[in-house]
Amino acid sequence: MKLYTAAFAPNPERVRMFLREKGVDDLEMVEMNIMEREHKSDDYRALSPFAQIPALELDDGRVLTESRAICRYLEGVYPEPNLFGVGYEETAFIEMWDRRVEFMFLLPLAWWIRHGHPAFTAIEKQIAELAPRGEKSFRFFAKWLDGELTSRDFVAGNRFTIADITAMASVGFARVAKWKPDADELPNLLAWRARMLARPCGQKG
Length: 205
Ligand SMILES: N[C@@H](CCC(=O)N[C@@H](CS)C(=O)NCC(=O)O)C(=O)O
What we know:
This protein is α+β, with helices and mostly antiparallel strands. 50% of the residues lie in helices and 7% in strands. It contains seven helices and four strands; from the N terminus they run βαβαββααααα. α1 packs across α6 and α4 runs parallel beside α6. The structure holds glutathione. The site of glutathione has 12 residues, from α1.
């Protein structure tokens, strides 16, 4: 298997965190430079039709894209520790949380950064109004998640899961917008982040 990845980008970082939590460090990695538009080449588009990273090329030549689908596949190859849930109930609740985080935290953040940060003109036809709209939704969800974390240690329940990884990838990417959880406004999110930074997912790999 070969993982196409890119430094500083949140979706490939989700997969790299997933691998670190699984203790897998021998996957072949192909590093792409997004800002130099390496992923826009015809060769890469043949693998990933929307020219997005990450992509996982399987040994038989098939290619998986979409971070969550790639992690799903890797969970099958490396089942322990379980990060997607055991049984239909836990799996459903973890999926609910992971999708909430992806669509209501990571996606608005991507709008904020991609449509607001001058460096992103390299890959985005910026629409100025989308940046503040994304920022507002991102900040709203951060506050809401902070409230949820008053009563538990992890995003989706009482153990570490894929939902924590998606949230950590978001919080990490938010540094590009000079945002991080504030001790007065988001104390629970800040404490959660400190716990995550102490885990394999929080180590730079
Ligand atoms: N839904 C996809 C999104 C992938 C995605 O947007 N990747 C970004 C990096 S985080 C990318 O490839 N950006 C390059 C571009 O938009 O030109 C996933 O979950 O993997």
